Amino acid sequence: MSDKAADAKKPGQTGELKRKILSSGNPELDSKMGGGLPSGTLLLIEGSSGAGKSVLSQQILWGALQSGLRATVFTSENSVKSLLSQMESIDLDVMDYLLLGRLRVHSMELARLGESAPVTLLDAMRTYLTKPDLIVIDSFTSAISHAKSDVQILQFFESCKRLCASGMTLLVTLHDSMVNQDLLSALRSMCDAHVILRSEKDGQRLIKTLEVVKIRGAGSVTGAIVGFDVEPGWGMRLIPISKARG
Ligand SMILES: Nc1ncnc2c1ncn2[C@@H]1O[C@H](COP(=O)(O)OP(=O)(O)O)[C@@H](O)[C@H]1O
Ligand SMILES: [Mg+2]
Predict the structure, then answer these.
(1) Distance between CA atoms of 215 and 77, rounded to whole angstroms?
(2) Domain count for the chain
(3) Domain that residue 179 falls in
(4) 60 lies in some domain
(5) How far is the CA of 10 from the centre of ligand 2 (A)?
(6) Is position 145 within any domain?
């Protein structure tokens, strides 16, 4: 390779080659997500109630902790205790990480915070003793419904992007039908990665699907759709779509 060609391939010059890949700890899921999430990704996980937003974010959280990363979770749905037991119920035991201080969990009362929710949350995300590699916000829906304006939410996402530019990976879950379409399209385009989870009725059965709309910096994944089940004691089990629709 000529010096010029070697230079062109030097990591860091494009900012892409150097990025670490975050594994979910579930190889099948990683492969559907283009081999895993590049670090510094802002990932939007959309879906209605029960579609699997929390389970998917818990799976990615688990993978990050397993590979030695630090993580902070902001949850509007759980206490620390209920999050631990929910994760344990799908065989993701994170107690040790919590005790070691590699995992922090903050319960957020978005409804009580009202209009100030996005700003308060952002302040909390920027305040850390040791910088986390991953931040999970599950879910951000209520902050949107209480926000002053769409602009406030867009500004929040812009600040999230700045945190990602410093190498942090950020997961934000959202109940899509609670957000107006214009705002939703703007948020989708701001994110580096976008996953839509659906729970569809097929005759008597409810089928869960995961669509990877985009993951910037990963292999070719656009439009990949896979079916999955959530099984007690196991977690997300991917199933081929034809079988899922079976
Ligand atoms: N331990 C478990 N055993 C069986 N099903 C579970 C378990 N934990 C979660 N689920 C199921 O996984 C699905 C997705 O849940 P969740 O991720 O909480 O949805 P969302 O966050 O999108 O509202 C739900 O149908 C829920 O009942
Ligand atoms: Mg949830």
Answers:
(1) 26
(2) 1
(3) 20-245
(4) yes
(5) 41
(6) yes
**How far away, in angstroms, is 78 Cα from ligand 1 center?**
13
More confident residue, 80 or 14: 80
Query: Atom of ligand 1 at shortest distance to CA of 138?
Result: 21
The amino acid present at 239, given as its one-letter code, is I
Within a domain: residue 13? Answer: no
Average pLDDT over residues 225-235: 92
pLDDT score recorded for residue 18? 55
Q: How far apart are the first and last CA of the chain?
A: 51
- Rounded CA-CA distance 140/24 in Å is 21
| CATH code of residue 64 | 3.40.50.300
Position 131 scores a pLDDT of 92
From CA 155, how far away is CA 33, in angstroms rounded? 27
**Is 246 a residue whose pLDDT tops 80?**
no
Q: Point out the ligand 1 atom lying closest to the alpha carbon of residue 197.
A: 22
Q: Please check whether residue 5 lies inside any domain of the structure.
A: no
Long-range contacts of 80-85 (CB under 8 A, 24+ apart): 80/105, 80/107
Instruction: Choose from 15-19, 107-111, 116-120 the range with maximum mean pLDDT.
Output: 116-120
Q: Structure tokens of 47?
A: 């879906």
Query: What's the pLDDT score for residue 15?
Result: 44
Name the nearest CA neighbour of 195 among 169, 219, 173: 173
The closest of 69, 64, 80 to 24, measured between CA atoms, is 64
Instruction: Output the six-digit token pair for 191.
Output: 């994110």
Helix (H, G, I), strand (E, B) or coil at 91: coil
Residues with CB under 6 A from ligand 1: 47, 49-55, 89-90, 230, 232
Question: What angle in degrees, to the nearest 10, is found between the helix axes of 150-165 and 181-190?
Answer: 10
